[in-house]
């Protein structure tokens, strides 16, 4: 897409037209919020917004890779809840134990998904639906159907509550490093090219001799690990393992990926645009909350969901428009 030596903005837009709509919408929303609300661009709002939405960015990154292969992972929300309970029990040992422990717990469920999809040839929708129910039930069993308080005497809560420089939460820094690493994997490594090739045609990819099963196992384990990271952020940021949390989070992840221009049929995806999609969805709720605070118009949680859906529809239409213009210019 990009020349190795020079950056051609026109070529980049033509090659990434499907994802340009989300960047335009994100910039417009940020400018609108900064101009309309007094404390929108304040350090507290930026910090809390990034900290909370780092969880959704994490699960959207894993979902992006799964969808690029033409698959789906419905288990991520339940995995977040399950791992949040697991790391709450590990919190007395500090973040140095709880963080890898939560990620490994998520990766274990991701490996189970990969086994069902690859070895047992179960459709991803059915396989991950089964693990979604299993992870949710497991979270309720090990927690006794109640939230599990973390150990406040260890350094565990610093990960989800402390900021760097008073504005950047540790959680968003870790997720940003993850996003950069996955961007490099997708754009510069053979496993990334294989992931995209599978979405374009799995049979053809096999005929080319590419490691299809290894790439599919990678994306499901990655998705589980990203959900595990989100579970650590959830428990550390809220001070408790939340077995009832995560309901519908898989839909938010899918929406972030699709708004970012990734095709549900696979074969095309963008890590930066997926991050932008997750930020855009969170920004819609953030702006609606500020609007409620003005006291002029009051939107209930139900109306916020309706407005969010309509906004997503407009963004997708904008994507399609920009994509068609880019295709015509390329022709």
UniProtKB/TrEMBL annotation:
Coiled-coil intervals, chain numbering: none
Keywords: Cell membrane, Membrane, Transmembrane, Transmembrane helix
Location in the cell: Cell membrane
Chief localization: membrane
Domain of life, per lineage: Bacteria
One Pfam family matching this protein: BPD_transp_2
Any one of the GO CC terms: plasma membrane
An annotated Gene Ontology molecular function: transmembrane transporter activity
InterPro entries reported for this sequence: ABC_transp_permease (IPR001851)
Membrane spanning stretches: 20-37, 49-67, 97-118, 125-144, 164-186, 217-240, 271-289, 301-318
Tagged with keyword Transmembrane: yes
Topology of this chain in the membrane: Multi-pass membrane protein
Protein name stated in the entry: Monosaccharide ABC transporter membrane protein (CUT2 family)
Organism, scientific name: Aliiruegeria haliotis
């Amino acid at each position: 897409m990009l020349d190795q030596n020079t950056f051609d903005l026109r070529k980049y837009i033509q090659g990434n037209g499907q994802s340009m709509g989300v960047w335009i919408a994100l910039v417009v929303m940020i400018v609108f919020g900064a101009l309309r609300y007094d404390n929108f661009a304040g350090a507290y709002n930026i910090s809390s917004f990034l900290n909370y939405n780092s969880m959704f960015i994490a699960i959207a990154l894993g979902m992006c890779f799964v969808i690029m292969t033409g698959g789906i992972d419905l288990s991520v929300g339940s995995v977040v809840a399950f791992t949040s309970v697991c790391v709450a029990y590990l919190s007395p040992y500090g973040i140095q134990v709880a963080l890898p422990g939560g990620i490994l717990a998520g990766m274990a469920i991701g490996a189970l998904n990969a086994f069902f999809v690859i070895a047992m040839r179960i459709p991803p929708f059915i396989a991950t639906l089964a693990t979604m129910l299993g992870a949710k039930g497991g979270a309720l069993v090990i927690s006794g159907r109640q939230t599990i308080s973390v150990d406040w005497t260890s350094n565990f809560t610093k990960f989800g509550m402390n900021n760097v420089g008073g504005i950047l939460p540790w959680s968003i820094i870790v997720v940003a490093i993850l996003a950069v690493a996955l961007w490099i994997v997708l754009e510069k490594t053979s496993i990334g090219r294989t992931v995209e090739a599978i979405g374009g045609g799995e049979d053809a990819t096999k005929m080319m001799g590419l490691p299809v099963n290894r790439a599919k196992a990678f994306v499901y384990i990655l998705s589980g690990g990203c959900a595990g990271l989100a579970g650590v952020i959830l428990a550390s940021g809220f001070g408790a393992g939340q077995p009832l949390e995560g309901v519908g989070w898989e839909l938010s992840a899918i929406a972030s990926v699709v708004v970012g221009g990734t095709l549900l049929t696979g074969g095309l995806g963008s890590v930066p645009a997926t991050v932008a999609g997750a930020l855009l969805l969170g920004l819609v709720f953030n702006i609606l909350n500020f609007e409620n605070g003005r006291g002029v118009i009051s939107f209930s949680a139900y109306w916020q969901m309706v407005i969010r859906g309509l906004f997503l529809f407009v963004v997708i239409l904008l994507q399609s428009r920009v994509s068609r213009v880019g295709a015509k210019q390329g022709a």
